[in-house]
Amino acid sequence: MNEDELMQLIFMSDFSTRNEVTKMSGRGMGMAAVKQELEKLNGNVKVKSRPGKGTEFLFYIPFS
To answer: Is-contact 37 60, C-beta < 8 A?
Structure first.
């Protein structure tokens, strides 16, 4: 997989970095729900990550 394909894994349902479910996290629904709602608006999201620097989420939503 290339870097862009790897970044898309976080948008899959049930993807989680947690080993156990808590009240606040671990279900793997958060980013999948974000992408789904953006797609309903004909938008999308791009992820840029740089080790040691951070991760950037770019949300594209068309104007009407």
So the answer is: no
Containing structural domain, residue 46: 3-15+27-60
Instruction: Check: CB of residue 34 under 8 Å from CB of residue 10.
Output: no
**pTM given for the model:** 0.67
Query: What's the CA gap between 60 and 5, in Å, rounded?
Result: 18
What is the DSSP secondary-structure string of the chain?
--HHHHHHGGGSTT--S-SS--SSS-SS-HHHHHHHHHHHTT-EEEEEEETTTEEEEEEE----
Instruction: Calculate the dihedral angle through the C-alpha atoms of 45, 41, 18, 53, rounding to the nearest 10 degrees.
Output: 20
Whether the predicted pLDDT of 24 surpasses 80 = no
Give the chain's domain count: 1
